[in-house]
Amino acid sequence: MMKMYSETPDTARVVPLPDFLAQARTLVDVHLNLLLPAELVSPTKLHAAIRWSVFAGGKRFRPALLLAVGETFGVASESLIATACALEMIHTYSLVHDDLPSMDDDDLRRGRPTCHVRFGEATAILAGDALLTMAFKTIAEDDKLPATKRVRLISEIARAAGTPEGMVAGQAYDLEAEARPVAAAELETIHRLKTGALITAAARCGAIIAEASPAELAAITDYAGQLGLLFQITDDLLDVTATAEAIGKTPGKDARSRKATYPALHGIEATRSYLASTHAAACEPLDRVERPTDLLRAIADFILEREA
Amino acid sequence: MMKMYSETPDTARVVPLPDFLAQARTLVDVHLNLLLPAELVSPTKLHAAIRWSVFAGGKRFRPALLLAVGETFGVASESLIATACALEMIHTYSLVHDDLPSMDDDDLRRGRPTCHVRFGEATAILAGDALLTMAFKTIAEDDKLPATKRVRLISEIARAAGTPEGMVAGQAYDLEAEARPVAAAELETIHRLKTGALITAAARCGAIIAEASPAELAAITDYAGQLGLLFQITDDLLDVTATAEAIGKTPGKDARSRKATYPALHGIEATRSYLASTHAAACEPLDRVERPTDLLRAIADFILEREA
Predict the structure, then answer these.
(1) Which chain B residues touch A123 with a CB distance below 8 Å?
(2) Separation in Å, CA A113 to CA A56, A99, A110, A203, B97
(3) Cα–Cα distance for residue pair B187/B281, rounded to 1 Å
(4) Which CATH number among 2.40.30.70, 3.30.300.30, 3.40.50.1000, 1.10.600.10 corresponds to the domain A17-305?
(5) A13, A247, A248, B10: which could join A110 in a potential S-S bond, CB 3.0 to 4.6 Å?
(6) Tens digit of pLDDT for each residue in A16-47?
């Protein structure tokens, strides 16, 4: 059991955010390692491709957010970890499929060859399919949670990952938008679905497992919605301002492929000011949560200031 | 509610198999139409691609098998239909991804352009991803079944569709096998995973929803395992013997691409004799089911004699 923060609301937090994130990442990686088929298990190439993609140095942001929300409501990590890993499987599958030649056509991710470059396109498609399937299996078989909660989590995540309300819909809008100019409202929709939906689901799943009240769940939903937006805006900004070394991929790629981004639409300065107001909007709903929310506020600060 | 067969074991069946299959297909199509996003809902191209692929004239064999097993155990179709539709979503996603240029590279399916030919490769990948996601959402949200049953069904189907025990693993083995000669035992494994696992899951889900006894579930599992094999052998034979018009795709394609098939490995005559013994092996376990199993036997006969 991960126990990094005290359960009593009025006790001071003892572990700073970087330590929380590092511990969350280790916990998630240990469990992912147990959940994914070993590379020695046949079909070995498929399982090697899955592990190559999952263990590629990701920050485990979605699992960490779920763990942080659960932690905020005093839930032990053993009740959270399977769902956290399922979210990372879905996030990874989406990266593998996004990187494919017919999609974003990326050769490099986090400084390493992408799945299809390393294992071939067919195996990359199958690796993504397998991860998506495994995510739902993982939650369905999580014996730490009652079945009623498991079906609610699966429903929540499937809606956030699918269409018309989720990530796949966002990807489809993004494809359509590449061919023509995009209005600000449309860009917001693309990001809300493509990145925001799964981030919101991560936070909501933590609250659902914790049996948060409807009012608390609504506050967490609002918080996470703004957090997702914050995440996307910083992502867009980093693509313009960072070096290849810092972000582990070719910078400026979004602009060259005429992808809809905030800096492209509003300019860098206006984007920075939007970033600040989004950060404030993320923290505001936390006032409605009667728990110590400093961990969740620290996550918003962390995204605002991130460099990769 | 579909009521095609009497519930009392000793009453004679009144509806012949072709009528059962036609009614099952209509029932499944009506519900799929309700479950899938409308084409007018944005992103419209994605939803058009999903519907193009799902409503492509498929026989709905997996849903029909689930309905037939449920019917055999006296379960009303309203408790079966959501899971039946979920299976068809997964089957359709697998066809869409299989047809992609980097996989089987098929331009034609059931006499129509495949999804990526009609809508582009990126949209086809997303349509498959969306269908897989929607399948699990559909079962998770099926309020006709208790949550305990829903998680069991999701686990069952995810195992049958994923890796290392399911369809995606079978696809991966098949990819590996294309490059070199394949032994008979290996071919059996490929088919058992690639086609058999989901067919077996369909039958098992019907029995699970019906709360069949462990002995009955085992008998249904054995029946369906042989049925899946029967299905694959007839598929391979049809590819060699049928005309393009009858099967709606280019015949002989498997042989040209050096895919592992029964006729390629054993010859046509030995394959026909294997077909007969597999049919007998499919019917034998039904003696252990204390229900009227003529519907399930009729399905085995139907596959043995199918022409497309």
Answers:
(1) 172, 175
(2) 10, 10, 8, 31, 23
(3) 19
(4) 1.10.600.10
(5) A248
(6) 999 999 999 999 999 999 999 999 999 999 99
Mean pLDDT by 10 residues, chain B (308 residues): 45 75 98 98 97 96 98 98 98 98 94 97 98 98 98 98 98 87 86 95 98 98 96 88 61 57 87 94 97 97 84
Question: Cα–Cα distance between A288 and A212 in angstroms, integer?
Answer: 12
Nearest alpha carbon to residue A89 among A224, A239, A198: A198
DSSP A117-172: HHH-HHHHHHHHHHHHHHHHHHHHT-TTS-HHHHHHHHHHHHHHHSTTTSHHHHHH
pTM of the model: 0.93
Closest Cβ opposite residue A137 in set B130, B162, B169: B162
H or E segment and range at residue A75: none
Q: How many interface pairs between A and B have CB atoms less than 8 angstroms apart?
A: 163
| Alpha carbon of B283: minimum distance to chain A alpha carbons (Å) | 31
* DSSP bridge pairs for A112: A109
The nearest alpha carbon in chain B to A46 belongs to: B172
Least CA distance to A152: which residue of chain B? B140
Question: Does A162 contact B126 at a Cβ distance shorter than 8 Å?
Answer: no
* CB of A205 closer than 8 Å to CB of A156: yes
- Inter-chain CB proximity A140 and B155 less than 8 Å: yes
Domain boundaries, chain B: 17-305
CA distance A41 to A50: 12
Residue A183: CB atoms within 10 A of its CB come to 11
For residue A281, give the nearest of A196, A190, A185, A211 by alpha carbon: A196
Measured in angstroms, the CA of A165 and the nearest CA of chain B are apart by 10
Give the SS3 label for residue B141: coil
Burial A271-305 (b: 16+ CB within 10 A, else e): beebbeebbebbbebbeebebbbebbbbbbeebbe
Residues in chain A closer than 8 A to B123 (CB atoms): 172, 175
What is the helix (H) or strand (E) element at residue B109, kind and residue range?
A: strand B108-109
Cβ-contact B93, B129 below 8 angstroms: yes
Q: Which among A143, A195, A131 is positioned nearest to A167, based on CA atoms?
A: A195
Can you tell me whether residue A64 is helix, strand or coil?
helix
Of A42, A130, A172, nearest to B162 by CB-CB distance is A130
CB distance A140–B134 less than 8 Å?
A: no
Q: How close, in Å, is residue A5 to chain B by CA atoms? A: 32
Does the beta-carbon distance from B172 to A45 stay under 8 Å? yes
List strand residue ranges (DSSP E) for chain A, in order.
108-109, 112-113
B-chain residues near A162 (CB < 8 A)? 129-130, 133-134, 137
